[in-house]
């Protein structure tokens, strides 16, 4: 798999997701600086977590205007999968690749802990290896993860099955108590109409290695590696 | 000499700068004339308790600082310890007490920023932060505000820079009501053969300023940190520094990128006394002089004079001495990361610090006078009378043991600290093998295939130190040791932050002397040397001093994660064993 | 021409304002009983140099649309003043 | 009496504004070359009920001092309006 991880000034989960991608595919992703205007051939583009531009003004706002984002938007329109984790999700909403916005957590506090998520749809590249309704444990670590969209957009997302992850309790019940940030309808992750752009606040890469206490995130990377092997074509070195 | 900053040097002005009359005499003697205002400012910060350790130095010298594992002990920006396979850990703890009381969010945030710079200055990537916090009584009207501000500030800074905050401690005691303690520790990892030091060896090399621009931030913070509080210092307070963690993150990446090559001769962060302490320390350690041209300093505000620039505490700045011919390459890296870069002077053979601004010489001082020549006091001390021993038999038994246990667990001293550490990103970097909540945090060193880790803990029980400083000091070291061994680590070395009241009072000096003695005794007995640390004195308000609080931060090595232990009880039918007396 | 733009970015009505809500709660517990609602927005001052006012106005409008406000949830308004 | 207080909370001059600095940089890279400085502050609208304007003024002043502004680094000003 040729994956590209975009590095913005202030990204800080770029190395983490690169390790998960390498562990799953046997091959390190390219790290692409935000100031570039061209993307290398990529079967997957990842916008990592962190604090691009310090989260100043609004999380993701300034990164959405980085030179590389024009190329990312173009590739996304061509169907190249784009995964935005945490700050990456915020950037995806700011560029308009995903609808809605991520607002300050209802508690107003930064929150870092493991949460349970219900996999709402397995019809995406990312969630194929999970069972529909499966409960997975991923960590969250964010200050602005409170998903908002207007009622029409929410109806559309629900109607088209584009809500991919929802915060829930250990038994899969979607409750207010299980919602760490006040997100509408406990939304933790959504995808684009073609299912190829996924944004989620929780960090699958943080529980993708048994040493760290869990591996629920690993199947996502593994599935991407298996599905996307060699599709970019231009560069066929070492596939595992 | 002519100086653009002109102000008459009166005894009042000298006193305001925290210099005692005999210290002022010594300054005039060294210069052979009256100082300029800029020189007075420089002497004042360099001879402050904070920079010179004038009250504590004689005692610090008694601490054990050596061992086969020690690569660099006290005397550099941070301590460096060998962890095998060519790897090293670099760590230090530092206080940001007074600023955090004045503005809890920014005070704590900039404390984290400062300690991280001490670590990455040495070529290490920061991999974990810890913090030891003391607040006043839980019911004191300021406590809630201070606690939430400090925690948010530590999180705000650490989270943004992408360094996990993995441990620490929180205590409450009415004697901290007006003097909270915020001690931040940072741990980094580096290759043992790629450690960077602050000695600016060789004359004629460029002195380079990088990072953020200089403003009038916190001018006189360094001397302020050494002066006792009184009721109106909240009013007289100078501008506090505001942290910019985003810039810090860029600075980490830019410095580490430059450090991959061999461009740097010496590097030093601009800590509490900014341009003054960084240039003096680099010159002093390298046995050279430094000439700075302040017109070239990147400035955020207009009309700053030499005094202000030399004393500014603007954050996220570093000073470097570069090898000949390396300027362009270095500049390209810092520009790429969007940071200021300016050659602001050069090293000289004069052994003097010479400051020029707008064509006038503002300061000309022999470097040694500011460092080795700083005052050192053998302050008188007395041992406080030990409190009466409370015999267990004299304490009425609780009605119900279970009730007592519940009360303890729910009380502010022992209740869960989850509320604190859930506001810290403690997992970023995907190396946090043991998260907060156990005896020590465990951080993997290396990539995902690595099985090597370090264990980190920080401890002190001020109430023990108040009851018996020597035993309390020893106990703090021993407790840190136990917490590291409890996760299966081999303890390696410690850092510390000595927080006390006014050392000019013999009973406080007695606490310092005896705590340090106890720490040294335990450290020697356990081969657990002290490799770095920091001293914060004058933590008292209206004559009420904090309890003696020598915070200890320890680092241990787990060569193989298979051997790691955790606090959780495992299956139902296991046997519990109590060890020790 | 040196100008200052004063820009207000506020949440659209209908968008829940967690910060405003928290502040209202805090004011209430501080004993300010008359507080009925709090909305928090951003206020920016941008100093800029433009050939003339019309150009400045157009620039500031674009700054708001492209960066300063997220029009999914926010609205903005601004005033221009010669500095 | 129902009133609205419009409150501006801004950093004192001389205090570093990291957000403003980053926004200025972003505007510059978006091609707005004339931007010289950006300062970011907060704007709040507080709806409150008070017996009269004098009381409202006094209340809002106290709200600012006690909660809305961090007077170590920020200043505030406000306007009152009958709602
Ligand atoms: N309590 C202490 N124990 C051991 N070493 C100490 C102690 N306090 C300070 N030091 C050492 O003295 C040196 C100067 O400390 P400091 O001035 O705080 O450093 P910086 O200039 O980086 O702020 C450092 O190397 C530090 O490790």
UniProtKB/TrEMBL annotation, chain A:
InterPro entries: Class_I_gatase-like (IPR029062), PRibForGlyAmidine_synth_PurQ (IPR010075). Pathway: Purine metabolism; IMP biosynthesis via de novo pathway; 5-amino-1-(5-phospho-D-ribosyl)imidazole from N(2)-formyl-N(1)-(5-phospho-D-ribosyl)glycinamide: step 1/2. Its EC number is 6.3.5.3, 3.5.1.2. Keywords: ATP-binding, Cytoplasm, Glutamine amidotransferase, Hydrolase, Ligase, Nucleotide-binding, Purine biosynthesis. Its main location: cytoplasm. It is found in: Cytoplasm. Gene3D superfamilies: 3.40.50.880. It catalyses: L-glutamine + H2O = L-glutamate + NH4(+); N(2)-formyl-N(1)-(5-phospho-beta-D-ribosyl)glycinamide + L-glutamine + ATP + H2O = 2-formamido-N(1)-(5-O-phospho-beta-D-ribosyl)acetamidine + L-glutamate + ADP + phosphate + H(+). It comes from the Bacteria. One of its GO terms (molecular function) is ATP binding. GO terms for biological process: 'de novo' IMP biosynthetic process. GO terms for cellular component: cytoplasm. The active site is at 86 (nucleophile), 203, 205. PROSITE patterns: GATASE_TYPE_1 (PS51273). Pfam families: GATase_5. Part of the FGAM synthase complex composed of 1 PurL, 1 PurQ and 2 PurS subunits. Part of the phosphoribosylformylglycinamidine synthase complex involved in the purines biosynthetic pathway. Catalyzes the ATP-dependent conversion of formylglycinamide ribonucleotide (FGAR) and glutamine to yield formylglycinamidine ribonucleotide (FGAM) and glutamate. The FGAM synthase complex is composed of three subunits. PurQ produces an ammonia molecule by converting glutamine to glutamate. PurL transfers the ammonia molecule to FGAR to form FGAM in an ATP-dependent manner. This is Phosphoribosylformylglycinamidine synthase subunit PurQ. It comes from Dichotomicrobium thermohalophilum. The lineage of its organism: Bacteria, Pseudomonadati, Pseudomonadota, Alphaproteobacteria, Hyphomicrobiales.
UniProtKB/TrEMBL annotation, chains C, D:
It catalyses: N(2)-formyl-N(1)-(5-phospho-beta-D-ribosyl)glycinamide + L-glutamine + ATP + H2O = 2-formamido-N(1)-(5-O-phospho-beta-D-ribosyl)acetamidine + L-glutamate + ADP + phosphate + H(+). Keywords: ATP-binding, Cytoplasm, Ligase, Nucleotide-binding, Purine biosynthesis. One of its GO terms (biological process) is 'de novo' IMP biosynthetic process. It is found in: Cytoplasm. Part of the phosphoribosylformylglycinamidine synthase complex involved in the purines biosynthetic pathway. Catalyzes the ATP-dependent conversion of formylglycinamide ribonucleotide (FGAR) and glutamine to yield formylglycinamidine ribonucleotide (FGAM) and glutamate. The FGAM synthase complex is composed of three subunits. PurQ produces an ammonia molecule by converting glutamine to glutamate. PurL transfers the ammonia molecule to FGAR to form FGAM in an ATP-dependent manner. Part of the FGAM synthase complex composed of 1 PurL, 1 PurQ and 2 PurS subunits. Belongs to the PurS family. This is Phosphoribosylformylglycinamidine synthase subunit PurS. It comes from Dichotomicrobium thermohalophilum. The lineage of its organism: Bacteria, Pseudomonadati, Pseudomonadota, Alphaproteobacteria, Hyphomicrobiales. The gene is purS.
């Amino acid at each position: 798999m040729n994956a590209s991880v975009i590095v913005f000034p202030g990204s800080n989960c770029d190395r983490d997701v690169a390790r998960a991608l390498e562990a799953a595919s046997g091959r390190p992703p390219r790290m692409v600086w935000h100031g570039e205007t061209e993307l290398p051939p990529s079967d997957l583009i990842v916008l990592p977590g962190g604090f691009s531009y310090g989260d100043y003004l609004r999380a993701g706002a300034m990164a959405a205007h980085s030179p590389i984002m024009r190329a990312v938007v173009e590739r996304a329109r061509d169907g190249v999968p784009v995964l935005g984790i945490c700050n990456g999700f915020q950037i995806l909403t700011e560029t308009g690749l995903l609808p809605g916005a991520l607002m300050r957590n209802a508690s107003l506090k930064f929150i870092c802990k493991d949460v349970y998520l219900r996999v709402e749809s397995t019809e995406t590249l990312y969630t194929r290896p999970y069972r529909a309704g499966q409960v997975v444990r991923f960590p969250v670590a964010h200050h602005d993860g409170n998903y908002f969209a207007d009622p029409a957009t929410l109806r559309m997302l629900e109607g088209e099955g584009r809500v991919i992850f929802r915060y829930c309790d250990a038994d899969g019940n979607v409750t207010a108590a299980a919602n760490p940030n006040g997100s509408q309808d406990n939304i933790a992750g959504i995808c684009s109409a073609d299912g190829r752009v996924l944004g989620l606040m929780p960090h699958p890469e943080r529980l993708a290695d048994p040493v760290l206490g869990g591996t629920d995130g690993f199947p996502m990377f593994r599935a991407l590696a298996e599905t996307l092997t060699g599709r970019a074509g231009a560069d066929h070195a070492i596939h595992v | 000499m002519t100086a653009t900053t002109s102000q008459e040097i009166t005894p009042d002005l000298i006193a305001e700068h925290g210099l005692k009359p005999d210290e002022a005499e010594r300054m005039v003697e060294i210069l052979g004339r009256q100082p300029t205002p800029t020189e007075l400012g420089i002497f004042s910060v360099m001879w402050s308790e904070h920079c010179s350790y004038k009250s504590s130095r004689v005692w610090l010298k008694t601490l054990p600082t050596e061992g086969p594992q020690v690569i660099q002990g006290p005397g550099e920006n941070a301590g460096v310890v060998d962890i095998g396979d060519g790897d090293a850990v670099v760590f230090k703890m530092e206080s940001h007490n007074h600023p955090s009381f004045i503005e809890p969010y920014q005070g704590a945030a900039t404390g984290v920023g400062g300690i991280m710079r001490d670590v990455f200055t040495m070529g290490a990537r920061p991999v974990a932060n810890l913090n030891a916090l003391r607040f006043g009584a839980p019911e004191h009207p300021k406590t809630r505000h201070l606690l939430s501000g400090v925690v948010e500030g530590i999180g705000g800074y650490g989270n943004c820079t992408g360094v996990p905050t993995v441990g620490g401690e929180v205590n409450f005691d009415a004697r901290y009501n007006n003097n909270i303690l915020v001690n931040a520790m940072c741990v980094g990892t580096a290759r043992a053969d790629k450690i960077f030091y602050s000695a600016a060896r060789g004359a004629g090399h460029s002195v380079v300023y990088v990072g953020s621009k200089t403003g009038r931030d916190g001018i006189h913070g360094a001397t302020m940190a050494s002066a006792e509080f009184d009721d109106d210092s909240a009013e007289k307070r100078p501008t506090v520094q505001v942290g910019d963690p985003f810039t810090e993150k860029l600075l980490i990446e830019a410095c580490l990128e430059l450090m991959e090559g061999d461009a740097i001769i010496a590097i030093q962060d601009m800590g509490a006394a900014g341009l003054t302490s960084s240039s003096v320390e680099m010159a002093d350690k390298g046995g050279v002089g430094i000439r700075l041209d302040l017109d070239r300093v990147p400035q955020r505000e207009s009309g700053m004079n030499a005094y202000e620039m030399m004393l500014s505490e603007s954050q996220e700045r570093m000073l470097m001495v570069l090898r000949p011919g390396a300027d362009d390459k270095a500049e390209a890296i810092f520009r790429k990361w969007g940071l200021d870069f300016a050659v602001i002077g050069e090293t000289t053979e004069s052994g003097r610090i010479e400051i020029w601004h707008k064509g006038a010489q503002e300061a000309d001082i022999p470097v040694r006078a500011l460092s080795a020549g700083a005052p050192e006091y053998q302050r008188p001390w007395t041992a406080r009378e030990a409190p009466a021993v409370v015999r267990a038999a004299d304490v009425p038994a609780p009605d119900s043991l279970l009730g007592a246990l519940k009360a303890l667990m729910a009380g502010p001293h022992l209740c869960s600290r989850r509320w604190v550490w859930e506001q810290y990103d403690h997992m970023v970097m995907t190396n946090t093998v043991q998260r907060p909540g156990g005896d020590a945090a465990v951080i993997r060193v290396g990539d995902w295939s690595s099985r090597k880790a370090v264990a980190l803990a920080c401890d002190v029980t001020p109430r023990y130190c108040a009851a018996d400083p020597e035993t309390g000091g020893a106990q703090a070291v021993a407790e840190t040791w136990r917490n590291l061994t409890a996760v299966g680590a081999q303890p390696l070395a410690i850092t510390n932050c000595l927080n006390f009241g006014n050392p000019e009072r013999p009973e406080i000096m007695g606490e310092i002397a005896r705590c340090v003695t106890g720490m040294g005794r335990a450290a020697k007995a356990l081969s657990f040397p002290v490799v770095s640390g920091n001293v914060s004195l004058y933590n008292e308000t209206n004559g009420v001093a904090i309890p003696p609080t020598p915070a200890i931060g320890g680092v241990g090595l787990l060569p193989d994660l298979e051997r790691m232990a955790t606090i959780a009880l495992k299956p139902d039918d296991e046997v519990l064993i109590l060890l020790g007396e | 021409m040196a100008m200052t733009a004063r820009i207000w970015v506020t949440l659209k009505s209908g968008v829940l304002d967690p910060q405003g809500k928290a502040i209202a709660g805090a004011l209430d517990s501080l004993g300010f009983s008359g507080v009925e609602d709090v909305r928090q927005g951003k206020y920016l001052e941008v100093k800029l140099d433009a050939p003339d006012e019309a150009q400045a106005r157009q620039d500031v409008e674009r700054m708001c649309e492209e960066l300063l406000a997220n029009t999914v949830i926010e609205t903005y308004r601004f005033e221009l003043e010669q500095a």
